[in-house]
Amino acid sequence: MMRNIFPVEGNLIVQTEVGFYENVQNGGHWHQSKVTVAPTYVLSNGETTAEIRFTATYLPTSWTTGDATNPNVKLKDDIVIGIQADAYW
């Protein structure tokens, strides 16, 4: 897995992630890859920090769309969209 962070302007950064997984489960064996883009707003006062992250992940031939152990069920591409908030002090 590879993660990169690109500063854009002020409090805005764009985080990316590219990954490749090998799954072995319940007698099945398959591969999964993913690409994520996450624009992130960072709010900090020097002592505490909060991040609000909007994510979009592309999963080609995703295990989330079918049964990878059954060749009669064709896997499809999937897109997962989300929002995440982190705060730490």
Supply the key terms.
89 residues, mainly beta
State the end-to-end distance.
28 Å
C-alpha Rg, in Å?
A: 17 Å
Number of strands: 5
**Total count of helical runs of at least 4 residues:** 0
**DSSP strand (E) fraction?**
over 45%
Give a quick account of the main beta sheet: strands, pairing sense, barrel closure. Answer: 5 strands, antiparallel
**SSE order, as H and E?**
EEEEE
- Helix/strand class: mainly beta
Mean pLDDT: 87
Count of discrete structural domains: 1
What fraction, in percent, of the residue positions are helical? Answer: under 10%
Order of strands across the main sheet: 1-2-3-4-5
**Shape type:** elongated
List segments where confidence is low: pLDDT < 50 over at least 5 consecutive residues.
Answer: none
Short description:
It is built from no helices and five strands. It is an all-beta fold and 89 residues long.
Question: Could you explain the architecture of this structure?
Answer:
- The chain is mainly beta and 89 residues long.
- The protein has no helices and 5 strands.
- It has strands at 2-9, 12-25, 28-44, 49-62, 76-88.
- The protein has a 5-stranded antiparallel sheet with strand order 1-2-3-4-5, with no helix packed on it.
- A hairpin with a 4-residue loop joins strand 3 and strand 4.
- The radius of gyration is 17 Å and the shape is elongated.
- The mean pLDDT is 87.
List the helices and strands and how they pair.
Layout: E1 2-9, E2 12-25, E3 28-44, E4 49-62, E5 76-88
Antiparallel strand pairs: 1-2, 2-3, 3-4, 4-5
